[in-house]
UniProtKB/TrEMBL annotation:
Source organism of this protein record: Streblomastix strix
Name of this protein: Putative Mariner Mos1 transposase
Residues annotated as transmembrane: none
InterPro entries: RNaseH_sf, Transposase-MT_Hybrid
Gene Ontology molecular functions: nucleic acid binding
């Protein structure tokens, strides 16, 4: 008997879990949430779960596909792919495979060899720094490097950073399949109408202190920032270190909410010591050069129907980040600051 690949074994495991939830009369949402929590980086979409439920309801309760006789004809596959791409141009090959019921390899072969499509990646351009901005980056990066060197003695336990970012309910692929010669795709801008939620994360080199999903209808302002972010972060620190007698370094960006008089006064009355942050320096912020970028890349191809599904995915992903990973991120942060401080202030890519 031919041995199964890890991917095939994982597919059977997923089908077994879904079948178990179906037999227990659980909903597809409950099954999907369980999978998203258990397999945060490698779980099926909610559509796949619904399809499996429909399969079991039809009487086909086998988790192993029946053997196929010869190579099946799929004359209409090209039309199916064109229909999907017309509706969702950034669909991934795996998403098209799931939607059509064919393997990803079959989809890729049809796109490249039959349809003559190529994958076009979107283009990203960085802000062009002025000489004054570069000079300021050199100064502040040097100060940050000193603070990080000091904090490294305790494995970055007492230096906290964080930020907020919009998390979308749907993350299309970074490009699209199109006929050769097609101009590069310009990604549609996210607007206020796009379904999304604001996530704020505060973390050190050892742990995540806070993850907050801003309720819909509430706008982030200084009072909300204190009540939902700074206050709970301080409560968590007090709970963990009730007798702490040292300052905790705080690095946040220069947004109006963070720089308001109310926010600054709150910080002054705590054990937090906020350090200066250079403008136009996403490359010197762990939230930007690592956290939100890696999180959103892991969400490529995901489509969430409900807020709870999105939150479960994010919580599962954060839970999967080890203390060793956090320390390595802060080590990289320190190295980046050193490179800017002892360089010409240019971006670190």
């Amino acid at each position: 008997m031919k041995s199964l690949t890890p991917a095939q074994l994982h597919k059977l495991e997923i089908r077994s879990v879904v079948k178990n939830y179906w037999m227990l009369n659980k909903s597809t949402v409950e099954a999907f949430d369980a999978l998203a929590t258990t397999y945060p980086l490698n779980h099926p979409t909610d559509r796949t779960v619904r399809n499996l439920y429909a399969r079991y309801e039809s009487g086909n309760i086998a988790i192993v596909d029946a053997p196929r006789q010869g190579r099946p004809a799929i004359a209409d596959l090209t039309d199916q792919i064109k229909t999907i791409l017309a509706a969702e141009p950034e669909s991934s090959a795996s998403y098209m495979a799931e939607s059509t019921g064919h393997s990803e390899g079959t989809i890729l072969q049809r796109l490249r060899d039959v349809m003559g499509y190529v994958f076009l990646k979107n283009r990203w351009v960085a802000h062009e720094l002025s000489q004054e901005q570069k000079d300021n980056r050199v100064i502040y990066a040097g100060q940050l490097h000193e603070w990080l060197t000091f904090a490294k003695r305790n494995n970055y336990e007492f230096i906290i950073t964080g930020d907020e970012s919009w998390i979308l309910y749907s993350y299309p692929n970074a490009g699209k399949w199109a006929p050769k010669g097609t101009l590069r795709y310009e990604h549609e801008k996210t607007t206020v109408a796009t379904s999304k939620t604001m996530l704020t994360v505060m973390f050190s080199g050892k742990r995540f202190w806070l993850k907050d999903f801003l309720p819909h209808g509430i706008t982030m302002n200084s009072h909300v920032f204190i009540d939902r972010i700074l206050g709970p972060t301080m409560d968590a620190i007090d709970d963990e270190y009730p007798d702490i007698d040292t300052e905790v370094i705080l690095r946040i960006d220069n947004s109006p909410v963070h720089n308001s008089k109310i926010s600054k006064n709150y910080v002054k009355d705590t054990i937090l010591h906020r350090v200066d942050n250079p403008a136009y320096s996403l490359d010197l912020a762990p939230s930007d050069f690592w956290l939100f970028g890696d999180l959103k890349r892991s969400m490529k191809g995901q489509r969430f129907q409900e807020q709870e599904q999105l939150e479960n995915f994010v919580k599962g992903w954060l839970a999967g980040q080890s203390e060793a990973k956090l320390k390595s991120v802060f080590d990289e942060w320190r190295d980046r600051c050193y490179a800017v401080a002892f360089g010409d202030g240019s971006y670190i890519f």
